[in-house]
């Protein structure tokens, strides 16, 4: 495997996700929790929470994708779970959930492309994870995330 392009946050996410994959029977929920917690820790105490969140989510999702790839786990499960985790984390720290969802989808697509995975499937899994997280946050949030993703993802497919 070529040298990873992950930042420090991405490498931390990768190690955390590898740890939960190896140590847990509940991979989906463990990835959600690990990525949510990592996002919260990353932006804790930062004045511009939304900006810090947007910069971190792509790397956190990419770390989860690389971890799944290296451990032979399902990339789609990792994408969906990581995106769900970072969207939940964004809500908990007061960041813009819609912008976070878009950044997470972008990060998932980029990471999938870098490892040779199906980017269309990455979009599908990432948007599903973002919408599921938004639905758990609330109906208004879910509607907002759906709308922002509809516009953002439409632009990627054309």
Structure description:
- By secondary structure, the protein is mostly helical.
- It has one domain (8-153).
- 84% of the residues lie in helices and 0% in strands.
- It has 7 helices and no strands.
- It has helices at residues 8-23, 27-43, 49-71, 75-93, 97-115, 119-137, 139-157.
- α3 packs antiparallel against α4 and α3 packs parallel to α5 (97-115).
- The longest helix is centred in the middle third of the chain and has 23 residues, at 49-71.
- The radius of gyration is 14 Å and the shape is globular.
- It starts with 7 loop residues before the first helix and ends with a helix.
- The mean pLDDT is 89.
List strands and helices in order, with pairings.
Elements: H1 8-23, H2 27-43, H3 49-71, H4 75-93, H5 97-115, H6 119-137, H7 139-157
Helix pairs in contact: 1-2, 1-3, 2-3, 2-4, 3-4, 3-5, 4-5, 4-6, 5-6, 5-7, 6-7
In short:
The chain has 158 residues and is mainly alpha-helical.
Q: List SSEs in N-to-C order.
A: HHHHHHH
- Largest β-sheet summary: none
The end-to-end distance, rounded to whole angstroms, is 31 Å
Average pLDDT rating? 89
Helix content, binned percent: over 70%
| Spatial shape | globular
Please indicate the count of domains. 1
Secondary-structure-derived class: mainly alpha
Rg, rounded, reads: 14 Å
Give the count of helical stretches: 7
Beta-strand proportion: under 5%
Record field, number of beta strands: 0
Q: Give unreliable regions as ranges.
A: none
């Amino acid at each position: 495997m070529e040298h990873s392009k992950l930042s420090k946050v991405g490498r931390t996410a990768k190690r955390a996700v590898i740890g939960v994959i190896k140590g847990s029977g509940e991979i989906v929920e463990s990835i959600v929790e690990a990525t949510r917690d990592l996002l919260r820790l990353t932006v804790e105490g930062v004045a511009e929470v939304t900006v810090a969140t947007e910069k971190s989510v792509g790397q956190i999702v990419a770390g989860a994708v690389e971890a799944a790839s290296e451990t032979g786990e399902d990339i789609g499960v990792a994408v969906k779970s990581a995106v769900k985790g970072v969207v939940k984390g964004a809500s908990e720290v007061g960041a813009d959930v819609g912008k976070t969802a878009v950044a997470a989808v972008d990060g998932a697509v980029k990471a999938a492309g870098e490892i040779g995975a199906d980017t269309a499937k990455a979009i599908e899994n990432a948007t599903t994870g973002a919408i599921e997280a938004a639905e758990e946050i609330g109906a208004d949030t879910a509607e907002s995330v759906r709308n922002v993703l509809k516009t953002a993802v439409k632009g990627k497919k054309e």
